[in-house]
Amino acid sequence: MPLSFSGMKKEFKKNSFTGFHNDVLDEIFALILFLFSPEKKKVKVPFRGFLLSGKPACGKTEMIKQVALKAAKHLKDKEINVKFQLVDANSIASHKWGEAEKRLKNIFEGPKAKTKHDKDSIYHTDEKNKLIILFDDIDCLFFDRDSSLSKEWTYSINQILFHQLDKLDNSEKIVIATSNKLELLDKALESRLLDYSIPDFSQNQLLVIMEKKIPKNLPGRNELISNIKTALESNPDANVRDLENLINRFYVKLIKNQQL
Ligand SMILES: Nc1ncnc2c1ncn2[C@@H]1O[C@H](COP(=O)(O)OP(=O)(O)OP(=O)(O)O)[C@@H](O)[C@H]1O
Ligand SMILES: [Mg+2]
């Protein structure tokens, strides 16, 4: 079910979010604003969606959540309602024949409108109601039709997605996808989306991110930060999640020693 602005605020608002990768975030934000703002409809942009690729934990999903929240906040002032639908393997995959296809179609079109009342449906989009659809880790859903992993249903849901993307009204709906395994993606899908390669965080950026995540009054905070620096020195490939694990281990130690 799509999240409303208040739902996004509740789930996505983070004091620990840093402005890293802001160049990409700003571009996506500007395009969303352009497409969703009614006064800016003079030029039709032949745009189907974005594809963000990069190594695990480089901040792809987080960036899109923040951009959606920012766009929803901005457009609320113009009385435009922006909703956010995250789609992952759980939302689509099904053993039941035809069910995955139906679910995917519903995400774009909403369940078939049976009554006039359905116009109020959470899926309904128009000049005042917009939807950002995030296909998170899209390679888990729409992998290459030529790949040996490919099953019949992948073939048919790929077709549905291509069809939906081709007829998408980008003044009402925007599709954004993320992937850390671009090589698994169907080339026909990749070519329909505007791609951004998201770099890894630098060691300094990682340190800033982790420092923001650690409460100021945590017992042993300095020791933990020094552990993080050591971990970064010994493993230059460490990412946010590796360091989060280190923080969690520190929490476990504090709890065990009854220091929390
Ligand atoms: N700019 C940022 N500032 C602070 N924390 C961030 C930032 N970007 C990402 N994070 C944090 O880093 C972690 C990993 O980010 P995220 O889940 O967005 O990575 P990802 O690139 O989508 O990874 P994957 O490819 O595995 O899906 C999360 O805990 C997230 O909150
Ligand atoms: Mg992700």
What does it look like?
β3 (129-135), α6 and β4 form a beta-alpha-beta unit. The model has no long low-confidence stretch (mean pLDDT 90). It is built from 10 helices and 5 strands, in the order ααβαβααβαβαβααα. The protein has 260 residues and is α/β, with parallel strands linked by helices. The protein has a 5-stranded parallel β-sheet with strand order 2-3-4-1-5. Helix content is 45%, strand content 12%. The chain folds into 2 domains: 5-197, Rossmann fold; 203-256. α2 packs across α3 (60-76) and α5 runs parallel beside α6 (152-166). Bound molecules: adenosine-5'-triphosphate and magnesium ion. Adenosine-5'-triphosphate is lined by residues 16-18, 20, 54, 56-62, 137, 178, 180, 209, 240.
Write the layout of secondary structure elements.
Elements: H1 5-12, H2 22-36, E1 49-53, H3 60-76, E2 81-87, H4 89-92, H5 99-109, E3 129-135, H6 152-166, E4 173-179, H7 187-190, E5 194-197, H8 203-213, H9 221-234, H10 240-256
Parallel strand pairs: 1-4, 1-5, 2-3, 3-4
Short description:
With 260 residues, the chain is α/β, with parallel strands linked by helices. It is built from ten helices and five strands, in the order ααβαβααβαβαβααα.
Hetero ligands? adenosine-5'-triphosphate, magnesium ion
Compute the number of strand runs. Answer: 5
Provide the β-strand percentage band: 5-15%
* Proportion of residues in helical segments: 40-55%
Q: Number of DSSP helices? A: 10
Q: Summarize model confidence as the mean pLDDT.
A: 90
Q: For the terminal residues, how far apart are their CA atoms?
A: 37 Å
Given this structure, which CATH class of the largest domain is correct?
A: Alpha Beta
Gyration radius, to the nearest Å? 21 Å
Provide the CATH topology of the largest domain: Rossmann fold
Structural class: alpha/beta
Bulk shape? globular
- The poorly predicted ranges are none
